[in-house]
Every structure is written in C-alpha cells, then in structure tokens.
Specification:
By secondary structure, the chain is α/β, with parallel strands linked by helices. The protein has two domains: 135 residues, no CATH class; 149 residues, Rossmann fold (3-Layer(aba) Sandwich), CATH 3.40.50.720. It has nine helices and 14 strands. The strands form three sheets. It has a six-stranded parallel sheet, sandwiched between helices. The protein has a five-stranded antiparallel sheet with strand order 3-2-1-5-4. The chain has a three-stranded antiparallel sheet with strand order 6-7-14, with helices on one face. Strand 11, helix 6 and strand 12 form a beta-alpha-beta unit. Helix 4 crosses helix 9 and helix 5 runs parallel beside helix 6. The longest helix has 17 residues. The radius of gyration is 22 Å and the shape is elongated. The two termini are 16 Å apart. 35% of the residues are buried. This is XdhC family protein. InterPro entries: MoCofactor_Util/Proc, XdhC_CoxI, XdhC_Rossmann_dom. It holds the Pfam family XdhC_C.
C-alpha cells in the first residue's frame, strides 16, 4: 500500500485492497495493494489480473458502505476463466475504507518514517510494517547514470546521483533522481548515511574518482557495490584497490563488470542489465531463463542480503504485534 501512498493522499476518499495471505503459487506477494478512487479510478494490483474485477467490485462496495471486507480467492477447477487464480494458489484480500489514521500513516511513510499500522476485519487483526525505501547511490554523472536512475526509481529505490563536476551533475540531466549532489564521490559517501539495504553503483571509469569511492564503499556493510567497465578495466581496478589496502575478502564483494549478461549496448540496455543484477541479488535469483529451470518461480527472499523494500503484512488472531 505504501507504494500507492502519494496517489491515495491526493484523493478525498478511497477504498484499498491489500493481500494479507498467500497459499501456494500467486502472482503478487503479501502486501500487494489495489485502490479505487472517488470516481472509480484504479491504481495498483493484487493478483496481476486474475481477480482484479472481483476485488474492484468489493472495493466499490466498501467505498459505499465503509464496512471492511475480508475475502478469499482460489483456483476454480470448473473453468480457468472463473474468478480465481489460474496459477493454482489462493490468497486472502482485506478491503477497507480510508480513515484519518490510515492517512496519517501514509503521510508518515511518504516522509520516509518507518512505522507499523494496524487493520481489523472480521475478528482478525493485521499489522503492516512500512520501511523507508532502499537507497541507490549512483556515482558518475554520465548518460548511463540517467538510465540507471530512471529504472532504479521505478523499482522503488531512493536515487542519488553524485559527481564532482558541476557542469554534468545537474537536476536537469537526471530528472528521475531524487537528489543530485555535486561533490567528490568518496567524500559524499563518507558523509552520508548508508545501511545494509543501500546499493552503490560506480559509473565513472576514472581511477581518480572510482578508486577512492570504492575503497570507502567496500569498507561498509552495503547490499550491493558494483562498478561499470570492461574486463581490462576491472583487472586494473582490482590492482589499484589492492594497492589502496583493500583486502581480498572485501574485493570479493565487488560486482564488476557490473550487470547480467543480456548482450545490450545502449545506456538503457546497460541500465536494464544492472537493474536485473540488483533484483536477482535482492531475491536470490539465478539470472537464468525461467524456461531452463524447474524450481518455483516465486521464492522467499533471502534474509542475509538486501532485504526487500516491500511491505510485510502479518495476520494475527486476537493479538497484535507491531514493529518499527
């Protein structure tokens, strides 16, 4: 729901449906949300299309009655086109009206505050924890950086582009970035907050920029540290980093040359390659074609690397657990 916060706050009333439980295979995870606005407009999704029409009708009902509804949807053996999940799983969806408390929580989440909110329906209590979006720090104000910033923002990152050259580091060149900083990359990184969800992407191709910032980045417990460049550049970079005192253990964390092997060449294609590696690392993916695999398509995210910025919605019976 937090992903829809800005749009929800712009409406004078709305009904929002949230996935609160998933059993088996389902196209959207727990926490996925769809909302219906005052004029019947729709944003978001709870199933990727399987049950959207039925949930829309429930949302219109809740918008009219203000009474929350908890509904279950599952696969129908009679017809694949019946209301249900043709992928074979089932899910529970909570549909509720807007309220002052919900609006206050959405406003706090937009401001970047971590919080948990409580919902109640049919004798059950739910809590949803909203964490700040993960940061992506892009060093190097080149054309590739604009493409990386755009796709990273689409994926839910809070994007900062940093470069020491003011003629290149301008907001006009990077409209998708949340902020554009003119500073030496290593100095900015040393002075800014990072955590285990922060990703660093180095695009500078210039040792006087990328070596100091990579030394700083590899000394921190970041989710991802990657650098763009050819294999020759990578080998030369490793030698320079060793000379700077970076240990082999730290060097093993450097993802360089950065990106998955997609064969792309343009800045946009390169950005897709980098984004694909970020997503694969976050969720423990292999990067292989799904058609070559027999493992489940949807898997539980790893707990040791890059926790997802998505919501975690926990259903409780007769009790309430909150976290911040």
């Amino acid at each position: 729901m937090r992903d829809l916060a800005s749009a929800l706050l712009s409406w004078d009333r709305f009904a929002v449906a949230s996935v609160v439980a998933v059993r088996g295979s389902a196209p959207r995870p727990v926490g996925a949300a769809m909302a219906v606005g005052p004029s019947g407009e729709v944003i978001g999704s709870v199933s990727g299309g399987c049950v959207e029409a039925e949930v829309y009708d429930l949302a219109c009902q809740v918008l009219s009655t203000s009474e929350p509804v908890l509904a279950s949807f599952g696969y129908s053996d009679d017809t694949a086109f019946a209301v249900g999940l043709t992928c074979g799983g089932s899910l529970d969806v909570l549909v509720q009206r807007d309220s002052p408390a919900l609006r206050a929580a959405l406003s706090a989440s937009v401001a970047g505050h971590p919080l948990s909110v409580r919902f109640e329906a049919e004798g059950r209590v739910f809590t949803e924890s909203w964490m700040p979006p993960p940061r992506l720090l892009v060093f190097g104000a080149i054309d590739h950086a604009a493409a990386v910033a755009e796709i990273a923002r689409f994926l839910g990152y809070h994007v900062t582009v940093c470069d020491a050259r003011p003629v290149f580091a301008t907001p006009e060149r990077f409209p998708a970035a949340h902020s554009v900083v003119v500073d030496w990359p290593h100095r900015y990184l040393a002075s800014t907050h990072t955590d285990a969800d922060t990703a660093v992407v180095v695009l500078t191709h210039d040792p006087k920029f990328d070596i100091p910032v990579l030394v700083e980045a590899l000394s921190r417990p970041l989710a991802f540290v990657g650098a763009l460049g050819s294999r020759r550049t990578h080998l030369e970079r490793l030698d320079r980093l060793r000379e700077a005192g970076v240990t082999e253990t730290a060097l093993a964390r450097l993802r360089s040359p950065m990106g998955l092997d997609l064969g792309g060449r343009t800045p946009a294609e390169t950005a897709v390659s980098i984004a694909a590696e970020l997503v694969a690392l976050r969720h423990g993916g292999t990067g292989l074609p799904l058609s070559d695999l027999t493992t489940p398509i949807h898997r539980s995210p790893p707990t040791s690397i890059h926790r997802s910025p998505a919501r975690f919605l926990l259903a409780q019976r007769n009790s309430l657990t909150t976290s911040s």
